[in-house]
Amino acid sequence: MKITRTIKYESDRVKGFCDEIMRIPGCDQLQACIQCGTCSGICPLSIYMDYTPRRVIALVRSDFKNEVLRSHTVWLCASCYACTVECPRQIRITDIMYGLKQRAIKEGIYPRNFPIPVLAKEFSKMVLRKGRITETLLVMRLFLKANWRAVLGSWRLGFGLMRTGRFVLRSERIERQSELRSMLTGKNGGNGGIPKEKS
Ligand code: SF4
Ligand code: SF4
């Protein structure tokens, strides 16, 4: 039987992680959390999360970077803003979830074979390159990178969508893509907030 370690040690902490997250716009109130649990109680998805929103805040504050970035929680967050509206300390928990998602992609630390981070990354890349997404290609990339076997189980659905014109095989793009790209990347070569994953 595999025994999973649940104890967290001082050596697991990555000092400075909380300060870095607090520097992200919208995340600066993180330390004001009183651990009341309102966010976890109101969150419609917390029953599916490995760490509830309250625990995510506690882990970030204590610099448990790897536990936070490897958790499924940030990727299950549906950005419904219920927690942000109800938080008695006006902590923008949804923005913190976004900040953690960006950080996870940038660091390349996210649950492997979990489709949502792969989808977010491919979506951002496609918008940056073409100005819009082609659903067919996006779904194909998602399946190939996250779980290629799922293609086999979904071929009938995909075929039906193509027949009704919902899925097109032609790659779609906007005109004047370079203008959009320079808006997103900025003149001095930034990446417009789209995180670049470490190789
Ligand atoms: S509702 Fe706000 S104060 Fe309460 S645990 Fe969640 S983040 Fe902390
Ligand atoms: S924004 Fe995310 S964490 Fe907050 S209640 Fe909605 S799903 Fe839960």
Description of the molecule:
The protein has eleven helices and no strands. The protein is globular, with a radius of gyration of 19 Å. The longest helix has 16 residues. With 199 residues, it is mainly alpha-helical. The two termini are 35 Å apart. The structure holds iron/sulfur cluster (SF4) (2 copies). The site of one iron/sulfur cluster has 15 residues, from α2 and α3.
Q: How many E-type strands?
A: 0
User: Quick one: overall form?
Assistant: globular
Number of domains: 2
Helix content: 40-55%
Bound ligands: iron/sulfur cluster
The number of helical runs is 11
Radius of gyration: 19 Å
Unreliable runs: none
List SSEs in N-to-C order.
HHHHHHHHHHH
CATH architecture of the largest domain: Orthogonal Bundle
CATH topology grouping of the largest domain: Fumarate Reductase Iron-sulfur Protein, Chain B, domain 2
